[in-house]
Fold each of these.
Amino acid sequence: MSYNKEIARHIREVYFGKNWTAGYLRQHIDDVTWQEAVTKIDGINTIASLVYHIHYYLRAVQKVFDGENYYADDQVSFDHPPIESEEEWQYFLQTIYGEVEAFAQKVEDIGDDKILKPLDAVGKDSYFRKIHGIIEHAHYHIGQIAVIKKLVRRKQ
């Protein structure tokens, strides 16, 4: 089995389940309403902002796969379009889920020889390091989403 197939599996599992932590993004957000997703409590991030933020970095690496330079800016990584209806929330989630699958497929296809190569001209991070960073980052914020969801529902 290719290392890249295992890495792609790990990406899918952090979003869709069956990982060894038994915690994944979809389990924590699929039953969240759009109102819950955008509810602000005590100055902490909303669920929608965290979901966008998690996915922001995956999109940045996806652009590299598509031939663009790597660029990510923490200053805007929480800035998502407004979500003002259940339809917009569901569209937001379905778009992300589709992009995750496309990204995982790209990871499978890049070839084992490329996974340790620099992601960009700066050469600071390899594809391997950046992709695993995305996975670790997602796990970190999934825990926050679980807590925020409880706080939002307690407030209602």
Amino acid sequence: MKNNTMMTITLCILTLIIASPLAKAQNKTNWFGGDVYDGSPALNVTSALVKSGGGATNFKFSTALVSMLGEKIVNAEVQKLTKQYGKENVATFLTGMTFAVKSALKHATKAGIKLPASAENLKGITLAKALVTAGTAEDGTWWSGQLFDKALSNQIHNLVMADIEATHGHSVDMMTHRILNQAMYDVAQALGYKDVKLASLH
């Protein structure tokens, strides 16, 4: 009887610890993996990415990739990803990223966030390196969620995911995060960031 009472008390204490605000703050993770980033956004990187993709109105993620890495490297990576995930899923990823950026800009405008003029030196390979750095978590893993959080905020990241889910469905949302994890890991390795780790969702 005493053992049962002690077990009950222990379970109650553990439940209180797990449910405490401190525990929740220490274990906040993004929906598709990786720790939530709640710091200041990297608005200069976001601005440069939007510019590289054709600007807010005409943004295309495929255009941004070519602008950063060159057509030859991008074509080789697309072929690699196509073998790995299939043509349809890669097309879903590219469309999903274009949609995500435009959705993020829409919510940023509503929130009164203004992107700074992108720095002239933040383009091409330099911008690609900035994206690698922005998406790399403290443990060295590159997460799409980390990049999206830093682009504007975790709150806007969640609003963008809600838009994707409502418009295209959960599978598109997951596939967009999944292939971006792999693609940016590949970019990181190609650019010499050998310590960057591949996310578990890839």
